[in-house]
Design a protein that fits this description.
With 524 residues, the chain is α/β, with parallel strands linked by helices. Helix content is 43%, strand content 14%. The protein has 18 helices and eleven strands.
């Protein structure tokens, strides 16, 4: 009788690729908002067995590539289904583009997993070492996806552990890409129990050795992470944070007649509550919270100064305009405003969102009628990552919206911040999965850098996150309100913040050496 493993290996045609697609869609459940991490123990071994069945030679590589593409397409289609919502904000103009946005981006991202499966099949070994090959290829493809073509490191497999913070602490050493490698290794390890007949076991002489060692590794990481969390330092008490969540629907924000009530809501929420103690306070407004150009409105700045007073500083998201006519540039900016109503410093967003803030490959895509979703606002790129230094405050590392998704690229290594400030407008991301995934990503940045992160989101989820990724306080989706909390302490500087992805790349290199030498019987 043929067992389940052999049935999967021997799958052909539509069944083979259907299994890969379903495995991808189910794997998305491991990430926010479902956080069903154990599902990977089912889906990743299936992928290893499907690559087993792809066969040798050029035909095997082609089949592996198609397997990887169908897996990736299922994964990203399920994970990024919320991409439909931005096209519905101005449905009359953009709804026709929705099928393209929902399907084309996942199809393009799936090319990275296709390349991963081809690379894995090209280095395949019949023994349990092929699990390591699979993990190397998958994690390597995630790193490439995060860096090529401006990068889009959304939905990294390692993000599954934001629901299990002791394990997530490993990101402070090897980063999110390294955590993806460890996750793929552990999740795929049960496939070692179904190694083909005649395989060379090398260092892993018993079929159960790979899953046992992998799970021991995860358990060890969890213990080390738990100890780190127990040693976490308390809040500093030196600075009070007031995070404002105005909850303005995206389709109402830029209607001129709504400017008055939107501004009044921001001002009302910003004012110190009655009876509050006078302490140094940093107020955060979300991305593009001001429905006009704040820097060009002296009355608005004067009003801000009056409600702030001498002990409060505001970090406000607002569009900024420079020049006129052909020399006109619009920036998605963060202004630092003091109690005199003066702008002390400004940061301009330097990583713009493809299709949202600019149209990539404009001549080609514009020719077929595609437009960016913020049509009418031609955003320009800011200069680079910056640290804003304001007297009386910790150095601030501003991140506007999607800038927080890039591992190793959120803190200036020369002038390191003491607090990451993420201003965002997640109303673009829909009412469920998108904002929760974005929050999980921000939590990983705090762990990697060992820095607290304050997040002001227009419609939610606003949150104060400590240096270990724990949510100190939050405001849910659709709520109008304010978070009042003391600034959490900064953790000891992490290894990842010092060496970045070098640790991850070294991990892949060592894993590759292990595969090579154990497969040849050089490691006993």
């Amino acid at each position: 009788m043929i067992g389940p493993a052999e049935r999967i290996r021997s799958a052909r045609g539509a069944v083979r690729y259907g299994l890969a697609f379903v495995a991808g869609a189910l794997s998305a459940l491991a990430l926010a908002p479902f956080n069903a991490v154990p599902v990977l123990l089912l889906t990743f071994p299936v992928l290893v067995l499907l690559i087993d069945g792809a066969g040798p030679g050029g035909a095997g590589l082609r089949r592996a590539g198609f397997l990887g593409w169908f897996f990736g397409f299922g994964y990203f289609l399920a994970l990024l289904h919320w991409l439909a919502y931005p096209f519905l904000v101005d449905a009359d103009r953009f709804a026709w583009m929705m099928p393209l946005g929902v399907a084309v981006l996942p199809a393009g991202l799936a090319l990275f997993t296709a390349a991963a499966f081809v690379a894995a099949r090209a280095s395949w070994t019949p023994g349990p070492q092929r699990v390591i090959v699979f993990a190397i290829a998958l994690a390597g493809s995630e790193w490439l996806r995060g860096h090529m073509f401006t990068g889009f490191p959304w939905g990294l497999v390692g993000y599954a552990w934001t629901s299990v913070l002791p394990v997530a602490q490993a990101a402070s050493v090897v980063g999110s890409y390294g955590l993806s490698f460890l996750t793929a290794l552990a999740a795929a390890s049960p496939a070692a129990l179904a190694s083909p007949p005649g395989s060379a076991w090398g260092v892993l002489r018993r079929p159960a050795a790979m899953p046992v060692l992998s799970f021991c590794l995860v358990a060890g990481i969890a213990v080390a992470g738990s100890l780190a969390l127990l040693e976490a330092r308390p809040v500093t008490g030196d600075l009070r944070l007031r995070i404002v969540q105005p909850n303005v629907p995206q389709d109402q924000k830029w209607v001129p007649s709504n400017q008055g009530w939107i501004w009044d809501r921001l001002v009302t929420l910003t004012a110190a509550p009655p009876g509050s103690e006078m302490r140094r306070t940093l107020v955060l407004w979300p991305e593009s919270a001001v429905p006009f150009v704040l820097a060009r409105s002296e009355p608005a700045l004067a009003q801000v100064g009056r409600i702030l007073g001498p002990d409060t500083i505001l970090a406000a998201g607002s569009n900024r305009v420079e020049g006129k006519g052909a020399e006109r540039h619009v920036y998605n900016s963060v202004h630092i405003v003091n109690g005199d109503g003066s702008i002390l410093a400004t940061y301009d967003k330097h990583r713009l969102v493809p299709f949202g803030e600019y149209l990539p490959f404009r001549p080609l895509l514009a020719a077929v009628g595609l437009r960016k979703l913020t049509e009418g606002i031609g955003f320009s790129e800011g200069r680079a990552l910056q640290t804003l230094v304001v007297p009386g405050l910790p150095a601030l590392g501003p991140l506007v919206c999607y800038e927080a998704i890039f591992p190793g690229a959120v803190a200036d290594p020369v002038r390191r911040p003491g607090l990451l400030v993420n201003l965002t407008d997640d109303s673009w991301f829909g009412p469920y999965s998108g904002p929760r995934q974005h929050l999980a990503i921000a939590r990983m940045r705090a762990i990697e850098e060992g820095l607290p992160l304050a997040r002001a989101a227009n419609t939610g989820i606003s949150a104060l996150i400590d240096s270990y990724g724990r949510v100190v306080q939050s405001l849910g989706l659709g709520e109008i309100g304010v978070i009042e909390a003391d600034l959490p302490a900064t953790a000891h500087r992490t290894l990842y913040s010092r060496i970045g992805d070098l640790g991850f790349l070294a991990l892949l290199f060592l894993a590759g050496l292990l595969v090579r030498f154990s497969d040849r019987g050089h490691i006993l």
